[in-house]
């Protein structure tokens, strides 16, 4: 498929407002693809690599602007791109506004501006770009991206720019692609959903749906070394749990960072191979956690996938607040030194696979028994209290808080493991103030002695259907000067445009924010505002995809 054909289809899809029509158009696009089907299925939602893959393009806004400016000709600077961005509001429209180098030459030969780029060539080139590393890799990336842009027609440039920045914004969310795969290849939606849950790869699932049908989809399953999304929890109480299930499984809610540990098969004597650790966003964090790797290698007896939390502990083994884990979690430098400073422990609470057997469809109780088996008698297995007695659950919660934990989890003992699902089967119970995770999409420079710091932060929630963000409030309270400096360092590279004191920020950083109440509000585009918002921490373990959605805010507002 020519990239220009693909861009034409995206343009039509973007112009379509009806959900069903959008799904049909995406289905037609998938059905029209040949060997490049996996690439089409990923590109259409702004992805080059499947969500589980550790490969990334690592192209920030400024690198992309440099490549566009260079392709646009000697009279265009990155400053021009940024000021255009302030006017036009998004990078696709900016990229589209230029005639790129090779286009003028081609048009002169009467080719009418069509280019020869195929979607596969774009994919190959972006993968080659992603693979560059070491000294000079930034320049190589700019060269390669420039090489692509200069072959693009304006419409192709619109979608290339959005693709490389991961912001396709054509109103096609994950649900639409899932439904389009089902429709294009006439497969049951549940079979497609399940296959996506276990692979996290829309490209692979589309190709299997087309080439192997339902039997192929059903045969896709968990694989060691390919992380899946973590099962998530809703807020709830012991009374909710007992009302719904009669009996609840209670565990401590550990205040750490979620990990999914994959232990591969290896040589005798112990039969254990490589250990990989993934964050809840499926990033590979193995290198930062050598002590947890050592522990797993010493303890685990079978190839398996374990779900749990790593928690920082003090000298006596008592849990320390979440901020301490973050000093270790994504660290790339001084790992050994930090290992001495911050001690971590693993608290494991689930087992998704053991040997070659997937446990996703087993009940919590059965999975827990497997967990105990693979971790032997180590104390890393979280205690699980099975009870139908509200007093017993209340006492369990009181003990957990007394011991310094942030609350408890209540789980349906009969439930299966549903990756990525924030459903009714796991409830979290925290007595503290309510908090929400929000994406920073703007800020204001401070005044006086704070003039060189970003001060007030504009916060947004996600609108998954249209893959966009809606504002919900501003936060300026709860932030020390030292923290402001840190936040400025973190957010300044993400600034997309500035006007006076106000800056637009590329959605990439997630703040945990405390609040007293959610109120309807005409001021913000979500339709809601937070009463007394207070900055708690940067959730470096979360990406904008994990932030609250408009729908969740509506539900929280209703349940107050
Ligand atoms: P929150 O981050 O506030 O949405 O709470 C959900 C998170 O609590 C999960 O994603 C886990 O990282 C964490 N967690 C802590 N203890 C447990 C547990 N026993 N079971 C499941 N999740 C837990």
UniProtKB/TrEMBL annotation:
Record-linked InterPro entries: ATP-dep_DNA_ligase (IPR050191), DNA_ligae_ATP-dep_bac/arc (IPR022865), DNA_ligase_ATP-dep (IPR000977), DNA_ligase_ATP-dep_C (IPR012309), DNA_ligase_ATP-dep_cent (IPR012310), DNA_ligase_ATP-dep_CS (IPR016059), DNA_ligase_ATP-dep_N (IPR012308), DNA_ligase_N_sf (IPR036599)
GO biological process, one term: DNA biosynthetic process
Gene3D superfamilies from the UniProt entry: DNA ligase, ATP-dependent, N-terminal domain, DNA ligase/mRNA capping enzyme, Nucleic acid-binding proteins
Pfam short name (any one): DNA_ligase_A_C
Domain of life: Archaea
Keyword presence, Isomerase: no
Active site, renumbered: 253 (n6-amp-lysine intermediate)
ATP-dependent DNA ligase family profile domain boundaries: 337-463
Listed EC numbers: 6.5.1.1
Keyword Cell cycle in annotation: yes
Catalytic activity: ATP + (deoxyribonucleotide)n-3'-hydroxyl + 5'-phospho-(deoxyribonucleotide)m = (deoxyribonucleotide)n+m + AMP + diphosphate
Keywords assigned by UniProt, alphabetized: ATP-binding, Cell cycle, Cell division, DNA damage, DNA recombination, DNA repair, DNA replication, Ligase, Magnesium, Metal-binding, Nucleotide-binding
GO molecular function, one term: DNA binding
Binding positions (ATP): 251, 258, 280, 309, 349, 422, 428
Cofactor(s) for this UniProt protein: Mg(2+)
Family, per entry: Belongs to the ATP-dependent DNA ligase family.
PANTHER family for this protein: DNA LIGASE, DNA LIGASE 1/3 FAMILY MEMBER
Protein's recorded name: DNA ligase
Species of origin: Halohasta litchfieldiae
Lineage, opening ranks: Archaea, Methanobacteriati, Methanobacteriota, Stenosarchaea group, Halobacteria
């Amino acid at each position: 498929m020519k990239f220009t054909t693909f861009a034409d289809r995206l343009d039509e899809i973007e112009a379509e407002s009806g959900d069903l029509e959008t799904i049909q158009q995406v289905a037609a696009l998938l059905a029209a693809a040949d060997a490049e089907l996996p690439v089409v299925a990923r590109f259409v939602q702004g992805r080059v690599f499947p969500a589980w893959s550790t490969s990334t393009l690592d192209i920030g806004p400024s690198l992309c602007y440099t490549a566009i400016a260079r392709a646009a000709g000697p009279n265009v600077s990155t400053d021009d791109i940024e000021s255009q961005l302030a006017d036009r509001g998004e990078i696709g429209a900016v990229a589209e506004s230029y005639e790129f180098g090779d286009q003028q030459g081609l048009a002169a030969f009467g080719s009418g501006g069509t280019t020869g780029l195929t979607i596969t060539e774009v994919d190959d080139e972006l993968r080659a770009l992603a693979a560059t590393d070491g000294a000079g890799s930034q320049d190589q990336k700019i060269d390669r991206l420039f090489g692509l842009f200069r072959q693009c027609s304006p419409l192709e440039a619109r979608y290339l720019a959005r693709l490389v920045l991961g912001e396709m914004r054509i109103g096609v969310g994950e649900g639409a692609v899932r439904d389009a795969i089902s429709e294009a290849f006439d497969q049951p939606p549940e079979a497609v959903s399940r296959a996506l849950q276990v692979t996290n790869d829309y490209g692979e699932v589309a190709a299997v749906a087309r080439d192997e049908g339902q039997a192929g989809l059903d045969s896709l399953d968990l694989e060691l070394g390919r992380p899946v999304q973590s099962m998530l929890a809703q807020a709830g109480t012991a009374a909710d749990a007992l009302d719904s299930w009669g009996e609840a499984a209670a565990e401590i809610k550990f205040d750490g960072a979620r990990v999914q540990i994959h232990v591969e098969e290896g040589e005798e004597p112990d039969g254990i191979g490589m250990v990989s650790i993934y964050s809840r966003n499926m990033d590979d964090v193995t290198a930062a956690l050598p002590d947890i790797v050592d522990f797993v290698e010493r303890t685990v007896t079978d190839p398996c996938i374990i779900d749990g939390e790593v928690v920082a502990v003090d000298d006596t083994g008592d849990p320390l607040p979440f901020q301490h884990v973050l000093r270790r979690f994504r660290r790339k430098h001084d790992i050994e030194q930090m290992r001495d400073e911050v001690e971590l422990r693993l608290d494991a609470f689930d087992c998704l696979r053991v040997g070659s057997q997937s446990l996703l469809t087993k009940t919590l109780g059965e999975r827990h028994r497997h967990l105990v088996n693979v971790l032997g008698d180590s104390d890393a297995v979280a205690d699980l209290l099975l009870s139908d007695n509200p007093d017993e659950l209340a006492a369990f919660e009181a003990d957990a808080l007394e011991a310094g934990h942030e609350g408890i989890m209540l789980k349906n003992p009969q439930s299966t493991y549903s990756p990525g699902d924030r459903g009714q089967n796991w409830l979290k119970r925290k007595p503290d103030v309510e908090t929400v995770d929000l994406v920073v999409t703007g800020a204001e420079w401070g005044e006086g002695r704070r003039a060189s710091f970003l001060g007030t932060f504009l916060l947004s929630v996600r609108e998954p259907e249209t893959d966009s963000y809606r504002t919900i409030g501003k936060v300026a309270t709860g932030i020390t000067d030292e923290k402001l400096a840190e936040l400025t360092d973190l957010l300044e590279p993400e600034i997309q445009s500035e006007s006076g004191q106000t800056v637009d920020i590329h959605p990439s950083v997630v703040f945990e924010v405390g609040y007293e109440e959610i109120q309807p509000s005409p001021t913000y585009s979500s339709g809601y505002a937070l009463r007394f918002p207070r900055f708690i921490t940067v959730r470096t373990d979360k990406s904008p995809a994990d932030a609250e959605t408009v729908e969740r805010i509506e539900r929280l507002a209703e349940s107050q």
